Amino acid sequence: MSQQKPRTIFEKIWDAHVVKRADGYPDALFIDRHFIHEVTSPQAFDGLRKRNIPVFNTNRTTATADHNVPTKDQHLPIKEVLSRHQVETLRKNCQEFGVELYDLGHPYQGIVHIIGPELGLTQPGMTIVCGDSHTSTHGAFGNIAFGIGTSEVEQVLATQCILQYRPKTMKIEINGALAKGVVSKDIILYIISKISASGATGFFVEYAGDTIRNLSMEARMTICNMSIEMGARGGLIAPDETTFNYMRGRKFAPQGEAFEQKVAEWKKLATDEGAIYDVVLQYDAADIAPMITYGTNPGMGMKVTDRIPTVEELKEISEHASFKKSLEYMGLEQGASLLGKAVDYVFIGSCTNARIEDLRLVADMVKGKKKAENVEVWVIPGSKQVEAQAISEGLNKIFEAAGFELRSPGCSACLGMNEDKVPAGKYCISTSNRNFEGRQGPKSRTFLASPLSAAAAAITGRVTDVRELIN
User: Is the pTM above the cut of 0.85?
Assistant: First the structure.
């Protein structure tokens, strides 16, 4: 009997979920967990209604309201008409089709990619989809998780399967110890700055190496979250003891003996010795510094102490026009330093950086300090559970004393779809994942950075090298 060739974790999970395969056609892939929210589900439910078919498996579908929800006065009706309509439509659809909804006011409500892991719905070896590009977050647990479009949301609701061409595989390996002031957000911004916002297009990325192994689960989620920002279909990290310890005892995770049996299975997911990837990239953790973006895509990033490149320094001639347009939009000069640049807003939140560890990092940095007068600071927990934890640990008191505003959970100012918008022309240091034109509000200007760098800017009122503030 011939021995099976060594496989990557991606190949193992993908192969285990293929329901039907035919040459020249996409694979029909079974989906273990489908997360939905108010923005990309209405047309999908309408499609089911028109064809008079039910949701195929309501037990594998979980809904929450996050994109359009206000982060103040969540007990009151939503003011914005479109936002209110979308959230109400989600309510009606979930009720009609029998889907579990974590609505406003529910103790499990929150940003979809934050509640999945904290509730134990996200597990190793799964296939997970959601009508949201940052579904790749869940890959931190060692699963295949990716964003899908509205027509695909309907496909999964109707059949619990999806048609997908198998992506290529890429391994990004990082080894070595991180310097002080450098956190997981800096790692992923560094990688994207190296390979560009399209450098992983067509690939599923596995992150490996001892730098990744030494990260907490929440830090790993930040890295997988932004895989999409370099064009990847998704990103994942093989599960290990850190993963199992995080999951043990969570609401929807297996319990007791059943959990230990699952762990034995999950341990077999790791990539086999000798498995081949289409591309392998390696980086040294010692070269990673606190990062910041200067342009209008996440690939336009640099070490906070570097200078914005000049046109002459760009590798691709094709980038010249977009580079100039980007700097014009941002009101920045080629070759300039960003250090000392005044900022107007600091946004700490989003599915990238709104977990309890992120809030603790910020609280540790600002304890006993006051925000700069010229800056408005919003801290938006990623879920009701994160909010409750922050209050139980007294982080809310630290934020209040520093002049930071702790609000209720939601996607908030990550994207201009709710009331939390950065005004036109204003600069915001944001812990979110995207800095496209108008992303945080029409004509707003965004610098992406880590929670530590955002906290430093809140205190100083300007772009700051966080290492200067760390004792």
Answer: yes
